Structures are given as C-alpha cells and as structure tokens.
Amino acid sequence: MSRARCVRPVVLSLCLASLALSSCKRPAKPPTPADLCPAGDWTVSLDIGTPLPVRFVLDVSHRAKAATVRHGGERLGIEKVTWDDETRRLTLAMPHYDSVLDLTADAACESLTGHFTKQKRTQKERLAASAVRTDGALYDAAARPAPLTLSYAMDFAQSGPAVGRFIVDKRGVATGTILTPTGDYRYLAGALAADGTLTVSAFDFSHVFLFTAAGAPEARLAGTFASGASFREAFTATYDPAASLDDDGFVPVGDNAAAVIEGPFVDLDGQPVEARTLQTGPRVVELFGTWCPNCNDAVRDLTALHAAYKDRGLQVTGLAFELTGDQARDLEQVRRYRARHHVGYPLYLAGVADKDGAAARLRFMDKVRAWPTTIFIDRAGQVAAVHTGYAGPATGPDWEAQTKKFKAVIEERLLKTP
Question: Which 8-state DSSP code applies to residue 277?
C-alpha cells in the first residue's frame, strides 16, 4: 500500500510537466501554396493568337498524383501526370492524343508558364500556356436575376448550318454545345458579358476551340470560331427556341448495296488482315481516328452496344485512319486507344486520315463526310445503314435519340432473322 501511495505523486508530477511543455509549443504553421505546389485549382490560358485565349480549369491533387480538366459538364482525367520538385515542372500528357501540357511553377507557386503541344498531320502544334490560381471564372460574366436558356439556329461560313444550345446561370456562366450534321463541338464553357458578348471555349487535349459572338443574345449574334492557331470561321446565331437540324446523320445507301470494303488493313501486331472478313454480318464497322475526340465519345457507346448484343451474334470492327502514316507510331496510338477505352472488339489500322482515300475503300459510298462513320451490315452482307459523325453526351437529348436509333437498326435490320 505504501509503495502505491509513493508512485502516485510522481505520475502526477510527470503528467503536469508534460502538460506544461505541450502548452508552450507553438501551433504548427499552416502550409503555403508553395509548400503544396502544384496542388490546387488553376485557370489555364492557351494563346491561339486571338484577343482572348482558350481557357479551362485544371484541378491538380496533392503532390500531383492526379489532375483533372474541368470544363462545362466534362471531368477529364489526365492519363499521365508528373511533378519534379527541383525544376518545379508539371507535365500532363494524354498519350492517346499525342499531346502534352508542360508547365513550370514560379517560386511562390502563384503562376505557371509553359506550352501545350499536339501532334498534327505533318508537324506538332505548339501553343504558349499560362495559369493562375482560379476563382472558377473563365471570362467576364455579368450576374443575372435568373438563369437564361439560349437556343440558336447557327450558320457557319464554311461548314454550314448548326444548332447552339446554352444555359447561362445567375453568375453569367455559360455552358452548352453546338451540334452540326456531322457531330458536336463537345463541352463548351464560358460566359455571357454585360454587353451581350457570348464567349465559350473547349479544351480536351485535342480540341482547342474558341467561339466569340457579339450582338443581342435573345435576337442575333455574329462572331468568329477559332480552332488552334490557324483556323478561323465566321458564323451567325439567330435566337430560335425550336432550332433543330433536319439531318439525323444517316446518309442514303442504295438498295442491296454489298458491303465491299477494300484493304489493305493490318492488325495491332502489324499483320495483314483479309478485307473480306469485314464483309460478313451482322456487323458494325466504324471508321475512326484515335486523334478524334468525337470518336473517343463514340467508342464508349459502341463498346456498350457490343457488350449488349455480342451474344446474339453482333460483330463490331474498328478501322483506324491515323495522322502521320508512320505505321509503327500509328499502331502504338491505336493500342493506346484500345487500352484507354477497354475495347473488346478488333481494331485494325486502315491508313491515314484522308476522307477521299477512305471513301475509295468503300464501294457503296460516294464520300466519307466525317469521323467517325458507322456502317451497319446485315446477315446477308448488305449495307443496312450508314451514319456519319457523332452527337456525343454533351448534346443530351440528341445523344440519347441517336443511341436509340443505333439500337433500332441493330435489332430490326441486323439481328432480325427472316
């Protein structure tokens, strides 16, 4: 008993000493942005030679373990992200597009500078890039008392009719897309300014788009579409809540047109493939390019259709038309595409991305109008339907209607037995 009584004061003294020491410690200093660099949200600007740059939001995780492009309704995860502490260099790569965003942070990690590089047909396009800590705003926006829905019948000087659909929230932030007869411009985001100027952009590591238009948003706008550093096209947009396209993407095909698709093709090991193996049905053949964002939307849906109908005999084949003509490089791009999208059906390299050259391989078509082009072949080896372009998920109801039509063609014309 006496031993226990002697121990208690000692323990109490130690506890009091510990408390005294802990109370004297200074609180931990919160980390600064420089300590956490390059983590956080950034507004990235790409200089394409227009008065305003193409802008998007980049979200970088702690220690750059992951990064995401946030643009309109899209959340695009970056495939390969690296950060070097010594050089303060952040590299974000999308290998299946053969594109890289390369940025270097300043000492305080308040800004980033560098370049965006993308492989084109014969050379790489290089755009100056910069980034600052973001508040989420891309362009000048004017607050509104209520959200505004805008629908336009559009006319592009070179490419013709289109439909634009946008929602402007109370902050003046605009999101939406533009749908053409050959597909959509995917996820657009920007702002409606106090003077009525509508500015929206798109960036997905392939597309670098900027649309600027001035006028009366609920009457008529006129502006310019800029793609990358060189392409420019004028357009008008007339307010029309009922605006729509007459063209659903399906093109006329003659009766009893045999599905004659001429080679040569090679598989992803570089081995030749007999063209006649593609002429039997029921089969869906897609002409695509790994460089094409609309094709990257379409392959997700085509993969789902293949999974839904393969047990009923549907075959799916993809024919890739790539940028450079360098077979080793182009095959590697198609392998990356297959891995990224978990494609479970055969993909073959068919040649370079030349629409006239692709059309020459298809005896039943006068021309290839857009990438992707989807060919539906029935059990008798006849072409049941051809669909050109692709309305992706950014178009909402148009995308859903397109998917229903694809299923109807498959069920009623490809899989239906006589």
Answer: G
Q: Is residue 61 part of a domain?
A: yes
Question: 142 near 193, Cβ under 8 Å?
Answer: yes
The pTM for the full model equals 0.89
Q: Are residues 255 and 370 in the same domain?
A: yes
Task: Characterize the bridge pairing of strands 124-133 and 111-119.
Answer: antiparallel
273-306 pLDDT, tens digit per residue, is 988 878 788 999 999 999 999 999 999 999 999 9
Look up residue 296 and give its two tokens.
Answer: 């990257």
Three-state DSSP state, 170:
coil
Neighbours of 13 (CB within 10 A): 10
What residues contact 404, with CB distance under 8 A and at least 6 apart?
A: none
Q: Kindly report, residue by residue over 319-352, the tens digit of the pLDDT.
A: 999 999 999 999 999 999 999 999 999 999 999 9
- List Cβ neighbours of 347 (8 Å cut-off, separation of 6 or more): 268, 317, 318, 319, 320, 334, 337, 338
- Residues 291-309, buried b or exposed e (16+ Cβ, 10 A)? bbbbbbbbbebbbebbeeb
Last residue of a domain, one of 105, 133, 161: 133
Domain of 254 in residue numbering reads as: 250-414
Residues 133 and 38: beta-carbon distance below 8 Å? no
Are 115 and 92 contacting, i.e. CB atoms less than 8 angstroms apart? no
* Residue 293 and residue 418 in contact, taking contact as beta carbons nearer than 8 Å: no
Could you tell me if 371 and 352 lie in one domain? Answer: yes
Q: How many domains does the chain have?
A: 3
Contact 138, 198 (CB under 8 A): no
Q: How far is CA 232 from CA 159, 188, 222, 225, 229, in A?
A: 12, 17, 14, 6, 9
Other CB atoms within 10 Å distance of the CB of residue 260: 15
Tell me how far apart the alpha carbons of residues 39 and 61 are, in angstroms, rounded to a whole number: 5
> How far apart, in whole angstroms, are the C-alpha atoms of residue 306 and residue 345?
8
- The residue out of 204, 239, 274 marking a domain boundary is 239
7, part of any domain: no
Q: Which domain CATH number covers 319?
A: 3.40.30.10
